[in-house]
Structures are given as structure tokens and as C-alpha cells.
Amino acid sequence: MAIDLGVVLTVLLVVGFLAQWLAWRLRLPAILPLLLIGILFGPATGLFDPDKVLGRFLFPVVSLAVALILFEGSLTLRFSELRGIGRAVRGLVSYGAVLALLMLAAAAHWIAGLRWEIAFLFGALTCVTGPTVITPMLRTLRPNARIASALRWEGIVLDPLGALFAVLVFEAIVSHQQGHSLAVFAATVGIGAGIGLAAAAALGFLLYRQMIPEYLQAYGTLIAVLGAFTLSNRLTHESGLVAVTIMGIALGNMRHIHIDHIMDFKEHLSTLLVSMLFVVLAARLHWPLPPGMLVAGLLVFVLAQFVIRPLSVAVATLGSNLDWRERALIGFVSPRGIVAASVSSLFALRLGELGMPGAEALVPLVFILIIATVVLQSAAARPLARWLTVADPDADGVLIFGSDPVARGIAKALAEQNIQVLLADDDWDGISKARMDGLATFFGNPTSQHAALHLDLTGIGRLLAMSDRRESNSLACLHYRQEFGRERVYRMRVLAPEDASNRAAFAGNLRAKALFGNEMTHARFAELLQAGWRIKSSELGDSFGWPEFLAEHGAEAVLLFGIEANGRLRVANNRRKTEPKPGWKVIALVPPPWKSAAA
């Protein structure tokens, strides 16, 4: 029976979506269910044979997809951010990574029997951790701020740098396999880098001059990336990956070029490509594996997990401000991700075409390492962090969406009581004022893909949606409900109950608990502040309880928060009444002194 390619592609899209959804529900890196589903449909059951279905389209499709994934990843490397990453991260992404590469290569050569060329390629691919696997793991792990910062920045910086280095190692292997001289290798890399820089400069010029309308900029960038990849490969064989990686790094570091909307498009496209690509690549694995490959892969994993990673981290963090417990946890967490899986498969395809002996062992060895590290670390990292006493005991901090005077006033009152607060908004004026007040901030939409990679939620366990944009508040509540839980997500009303008719009201699943009661709206809170009301903090005792507080400041005072004696934060809302008790601290909105005195 003839195979309908359209049906196959549709099924791949559906399966990829379901795998991504499952990863989201289980808070796992998406790469794990994608690879397992691909193995299930491919070698385990034989239901899907990519080589038979895609035929001669397999290599071009994989090549273009990997080119776009590398470009999207390299866009995130900002040289301006490297100055502030700290000594530990600089060590992890430089000599620590090189040390890990060399040890991984030696393990692959001596244990798995890979030729030195393939072994070095394996080391270059698997010394990389990326943000797509680190970020969901950190949300489950919840380590202290120093560990989270080191692991996040290692993934962000090393992902594109590791990809570039792996591409260079691959180019050297191909050049040597084809009998080319060092000059030919240098020319290949030089031409690829030159085309990448030229393409980035041309695209940056067009974007800066606004010669491409905004709605076509993402499309134009896609064409430029694929054009640079194809042109570079036509001029010098195998130089296209160098071109797109250099192009992404160059474009991402251009000043006065706004590429946030382009990055959003690329992230969505990359998610789609990864979802399909990894199922296809995993389905290409041959089962049973070559004799001894499974045992060799597991031995390499054990060595990589318990010897190579801890040793490279220990060397890389010497002289840093991390203590031995923090270094031990960092030495345990090192899941491999998208770059290792996608690029290794493309390299194996190409090296197989060139007749490189042992190339067929590269992909199963990489996949064994990916699956084993993600499974082990997802299960054991949190208990290990607790045993080492480097996990946050309770994520009681607050993420506030909004940066206007109302949000800033609430944030300052909480911060004064030693509650961790982070303000997030895409209003630069409000964020600037919050920074001047000494508050921690994030400039950007807290529900964006950029925030998913760069918004550090270490110690944060609640959302207060307090912007004056009703739909944005509801979207933020829906987004962070999965992160913090339904009971720890709150929003400030924008419409009063009498104004929120049935036609204007959101559906029940979009609603969240109303901050400070049904009657308090954003506009009313702002009016009260302008009228002289102030946010007051006070400690209650046996002789000065909540009734005495109201007697002193007026019965109109509005309870905002209660802080129990053990430091636990209670948020006043419309679903559950908060009764302050002796020993608590209360934060309330109180009338001006003259008004409370008159009352």
C-alpha cells in the first residue's frame, strides 16, 4: 500500500504536540518524551521507518531543520551579558567545558570503541547543557539562587558556543576524511563565517532601515537563514552550519536592532521542528543495538555522570564563592538536550554517506546519554538538593505582574518585610522606576518564551497579576497556574462587579482569586493612593490585635497581607477570609491620618 506523506506529516505533528504537552504536564524536558515516543514508533514496534517514508527527502529536511535550530539557539548569546555571569560560570563554559570534552572523548574511545575522530565529536556534542532542558529541571529542583544562576547561565552561554565548537570539529573530520589539507578546512570555516557575517549585516541593515515591514520580518529572516545555509554549502561543501551559527550570534549582538518578535517566531518554529525532528531521529535507531553498545553506553553514562561532570565542575569552580554542597549539586545536574540530539543525528547521516567507520555508533551513544541523564537527574536531583541543604525550603516569594504605582507600592511593602519580590512588566518606564526603588525586576512579558528561559523564579511561589490590562492579567494567571498551582495565583480586578456583565466576564477556568476582595479594583486602589491613603505595616500582639489596629487607623482600612510568626505569607482575597492573629505582621491600606482621626 502506498504511503500518504501528508498523513504521515500530520501524525508526526500530532504526536509531537502530545509529547510536548506531556512534558509540560510532568515538568520534564520535552526531549525525553519525544525520544521515547520516536523509539516506540520506530525500532520498538516498526510502525514508522523514516528512511522508507521520507526517502531522499530525509537528509535535506533534517539539514534545514538543524540549521534553523542552531540559528535560533545562537541568537540567545549576548556578549554584553558575559561580563556579569561570575567566576564560576566563566569556568564552566571555558576550561571546564574543554576538560569535560576531553574526558568524554576518552571515555567514548576506550569504553565504546569509537575512533578518536568520532570520539572527539561525541565529546563536543555532549559537554553541552542547554536552556531547553535546564529550565524545566530547575523549576522542579528549586535550588538556591547561586546554584540556579550558575546552571541557567551555563546552559544559555554554552548552548550556542558548544554548537559552534561541535560544527568546527565536524568540519575538521570531514576535511580529513576527504583528504583535504588544513588550508581547505580553514577556507571552509572562513567562507561559512564570512557568509554568516555578511547575511547578518545585510539583514540587520534592512531591519534597522525598516525596509522590511514588521509583519514580513520573521518571514524575511527565515529566508535569509535558509539562503545563507544553502549558498554557503554550494560554495564550500559542509560550511552551511558554520554560516547559520555565526549569523545568529552576529545578529543577536547587533545594537539598535529589535529582534524580540523574530525570536518569538523562531522559538515557535523551533518547537515545531524539534517536535517532528526528534520523533523522526529516534525512529531511525536500529534495534537491537550493535553488540555491546547498550552496555558501553551505560558505562559511558555512569562515568560521565559520576566522574567527568563532578571533576570538571570542581576544577571550573575553584576560587568561586560556591561552597562544596553547591558545587556538588552543580556537579550532578548536567542534562543533555536539543543540540546534542539533533546535531549528532545530522553528523551521523553525513559521515555515514562519506563512509566513516564507526559513525553509526554516534547517535545511539548520544541518545543513551541523553535519556539516562534526564531520567536520573529528574528523579534524584531534588532529594539530593534537600540532603545537601541547598534547596529552597519554601518558595514563598512573589512575582508581581505590573509596574505602575499600585504594583510598586505593594512590592515595596512586601520587600520591607523581607518577602522576596520580583516585578515583571513590558512597560519600560514603570520597570525603570521600580529599579530606582531598589526592587528586583524583569523587563518583558512574563508569559513569553523569552521569560521561560530568562525569568529566574528561584524562591518565587506566587503570582499577583496587578497590571491595568485585564486580559493580560488573566493570561498571566492561566500561565502561572501550572507553575505555582491554582491556589497561589491572584489577580487584581480591573472591572468592578457591577461593570463585569455576563457578556464581559471571563469563563470560570480563566478566573483567579481577586486580590483584596471583590470591591477592590485597580482604579480604586490608585485613586486611594492619590487621595493620601498609604500602605502601612504593623506587628500585632496580645494587647494590640487586629481590632485595635482598625480602631487606630479606621474601620475603612483594607487588609492586604498577613505574615505569620513563621514567616508564611497570607494574601487577602475574595475566596477565603484572612483573620490576623497575635504574633502576625499585617500590611494594610489605611486612610490618611487626618481621616482616621476624624473617624
How much strand?
A: 5-15%
Task: Write down the Rg.
Answer: 27 Å
Largest β-sheet summary = 6 strands, parallel
Helix-strand category: alpha/beta
The end-to-end span amounts to 87 Å
Average pLDDT across residues?
80
Shape: elongated
Low-confidence stretches: none
Number of helical segments with 4 or more residues: 24
The percentage helix is: 55-70%
In CATH, the topology of the largest domain is named: Na+/H+ antiporter like fold
Overall structural domain count: 2
What does this structure look like?
With 599 residues, the protein is of the alpha/beta class. It folds into 2 domains: 5-387, Na+/H+ antiporter like fold (Up-down Bundle), CATH 1.20.1530.20; 397-598, Rossmann fold (3-Layer(aba) Sandwich). It is 60% helix and 8% strand. It is built from 24 helices and 10 strands. The chain has helices at 5-26, 31-44, 50-54, 58-74, 86-92, 95-110, 116-126, 131-141, 145-177, 182-208, 214-235, 240-252, 260-283, 293-316, 324-332, 338-353, 362-387, 405-416, 428-436, 449-454, 470-484, 522-530, 546-553, 593-598; strands spanning 397-401, 421-425, 440-443, 460-465, 489-491, 513-514, 534-539, 558-563, 569-571, 585-590. Strands 3-2-1-4-5-6 form a 6-stranded parallel sheet, with helices on both faces. Strand 1, helix 18 (405-416) and strand 2 form a beta-alpha-beta unit. Helix 11 packs antiparallel against helix 12 (240-252) and helix 11 packs across helix 13. 46% of the residues are buried.
Sequence-ordered SSE layout with sheet pairings:
Layout: H1 5-26, H2 31-44, H3 50-54, H4 58-74, H5 86-92, H6 95-110, H7 116-126, H8 131-141, H9 145-177, H10 182-208, H11 214-235, H12 240-252, H13 260-283, H14 293-316, H15 324-332, H16 338-353, H17 362-387, E1 397-401, H18 405-416, E2 421-425, H19 428-436, E3 440-443, H20 449-454, E4 460-465, H21 470-484, E5 489-491, E6 513-514, H22 522-530, E7 534-539, H23 546-553, E8 558-563, E9 569-571, E10 585-590, H24 593-598
Helix pairs in contact: 1-2, 1-13, 2-13, 4-11, 4-12, 4-13, 4-16, 5-9, 5-14, 6-7, 6-14, 7-9, 7-16, 7-17, 8-9, 8-17, 9-10, 9-12, 9-15, 9-16, 10-11, 10-12, 11-12, 11-13, 13-16, 14-15, 14-17, 16-17
